[in-house]
Write a structure and sequence with these properties.
By secondary structure, the chain is of the alpha/beta class. It contains seven helices and eight strands, in the order E-H-E-H-E-H-E-H-E-E-E-H-E-H-H. The N and C termini lie far apart (41 Å).
């Protein structure tokens, strides 16, 4: 089995997500942030290259405004930042859209990106989808990402529902999903994370639905 050539991508671990209407609620950022920093430490120890991404909506925007304090990285991430990290500022949901990330990954001979950060329901899912056509394998760490509560004209979904649903969706086709501790063990062993696929997920979904209907 070929060992993945990984890069860790820190997606928008910005202060914008730690208070206000965009505050991460599941997993709570009090839980996910320590998992993010532990993953950074594990990547550094293993010599895995790191890219740090910040979202900007422009200096007239009410959120993700680079002139406002909330644009900054969380201090626990900023304190670990090293000059060799690749710094990316994006304006679209995907970390690949109109950024230098792909070129940096190619130059480093990376074939697998590990995503941690926020939000599961926007930039993580968008980036995982974009990676497919680029031929980049994706890992998403379920306890080092997070979602918000959502309500709009189409309905309501709690952050827990959003996050757990998207983890199952990602694992079914677009990514290998795991907890940060399992990822660290896979890194140490030089192994890829296990990944399911759409047909087996569909078969298992039918069986699970039938069992629940029979209860």
């Amino acid at each position: 089995m070929t060992s993945p050539r990984r890069a860790l991508v820190l997606v928008d671990v910005q202060l914008q997500y730690f208070s206000g209407p965009l505050e991460i609620h599941h997993p709570p950022h009090a839980d996910s942030l320590p998992r993010i920093t532990a993953t950074i430490d594990a990547a550094e120890a293993a010599g895995i290259p790191i890219a740090v991404v910040q979202h900007s909506s422009g200096d007239q925007a009410p959120v993700f405004n680079p002139t406002m304090p909330e644009f900054a990285l969380h201090p626990d991430v900023e304190a670990r930042r090293r000059p060799e990290w690749k710094a990316i500022t994006k304006r679209f949901s995907s970390v690949f859209a109109e950024t230098q990330l792909l070129a940096w990954l190619r130059a480093a001979d990376v074939d697998t990106v590990t995503f941690v950060g926020y939000m599961t329901n926007n930039c993580i899912i968008a980036s995982a989808v974009a990676a497919e056509e680029l031929g980049i394998d994706v890992e998403v760490l379920s306890d080092a990402t997070g979602a918000i509560n959502l309500a709009n004209s189409a309905g309501f979904a709690s952050a827990k529902t959003v996050h757990s649903t998207l983890m199952a969706l990602l694992q079914s086709n677009l990514a290998a999903v795991a907890a940060s501790g399992d990822w660290a063990a896979a890194v140490e062993a030089g192994q890829p994370l296990p990944k399911d696929n759409l047909p087996t997920s569909a078969v298992a979904g039918v069986a699970r639905s039938a069992r629940q209907a029979g209860q």
